[in-house]
Amino acid sequence: MQSTQGVKPSGEVGRVIVAAVRIRGLVDVSPDVEHTLDLLRLRRRFTCSIYPLTDSIKGMLKAAEGWLTWGEVSRETLVQLLRRRGRLVGDLPLTDDYVKKYGWGNVEELVDAYIRGEVKSLWCRKGERPIMVNGKASCIPGLKPYFRLHPPKGGFKGSVKKPYNAGGELGYRGSAINDLIMRMI
């Protein structure tokens, strides 16, 4: 996890994409941690956000690791997350037809471009219009920047008050985040 460049199983080099899932609630959160969680768009329990791994994101994840868990998300998990839990403004589901309006063939093509770094962000900021490059949008307008998840099927395997490496659920968990997200979709 030292580098922000990752080598995919196909041998292709791309950005490391991390998923952060908030697993503890709103009570007894210090103001600094609450602000960090707000910046990460993790305002409620069982919400997930996706980010390319940078030093600033890594610092925010470390600062709030007592309230969330995070790790490197796989392409398959990211596709499933967008297909099943991706929502547009008005609580409409994200569909291939909506993605096609912005030049992408389907959700898989959009995810591949995001991992390669061709797409800066999956969602557009409020009021931002997508920049069209070769007929493809740089972001998807109306896509919400977080995912609302269910509690994990089968429950948590450890305590939600202990770090992952000590038998709990908090903090960095590497690629094991994919299993947790799939149980929460």
Strand content: 15-25%
Number of domains: 2
CATH superfamily of the largest domain: Ribosomal protein L30/L7
CATH architecture descriptor text of the largest domain: 2-Layer Sandwich
Uncertain regions spanning at least 5 consecutive residues: 1-11
Query: What separation lies between the terminal Cα atoms?
Result: 25 Å
- Mean pLDDT equals 90
According to CATH, the fold-level topology of the largest domain is Ribosomal Protein L30, Chain: A
Number of helices, counting only DSSP H or I runs of 4 residues or more: 6
**What is the rounded Rg?**
16 Å
How many beta-strand runs?
Answer: 12
The largest beta-sheet arranges its strands as: 10-4-3-5-12-11
Would you tell me the structural class of the helices and strands?
alpha+beta
Instruction: Assign the CATH class of the largest domain.
Output: Alpha Beta
> How would you characterize the largest beta sheet?
6 strands, mixed
Helix content: 25-40%
Q: Provide the succession of SSEs.
A: EEEHEHEHEEHHEEEEEH
Summarize this structure briefly:
The chain has helices at residues 31-39, 55-63, 75-85, 96-100, 107-116, 177-184, and strands at 5-7, 13-15, 17-22, 47-52, 68-72, 87-88, 92-93, 132-133, 136-137, 147-148, 159-163, 168-172. It is of the alpha+beta class and 185 residues long.
Structure, explained:
There is one protein chain. By secondary structure, the protein is of the alpha+beta class. It folds into two domains: 5-76 and 146-184, Ribosomal Protein L30, Chain: A; 87-137, no CATH class. The chain has helices at residues 31-39, 55-63, 75-85, 96-100, 107-116, 177-184, and strands at 5-7, 13-15, 17-22, 47-52, 68-72, 87-88, 92-93, 132-133, 136-137, 147-148, 159-163, 168-172. The protein has a six-stranded mixed β-sheet with strand order 10-4-3-5-12-11, sandwiched between helices. A hairpin with a 5-residue loop joins strand 1 (5-7) and strand 2. Helix 3 (75-85) crosses helix 5. The longest helix is centred in the middle third of the chain and has 11 residues, at 75-85. The protein starts with a strand and ends with a helix. Mean pLDDT is 90; it is low at 1-11.
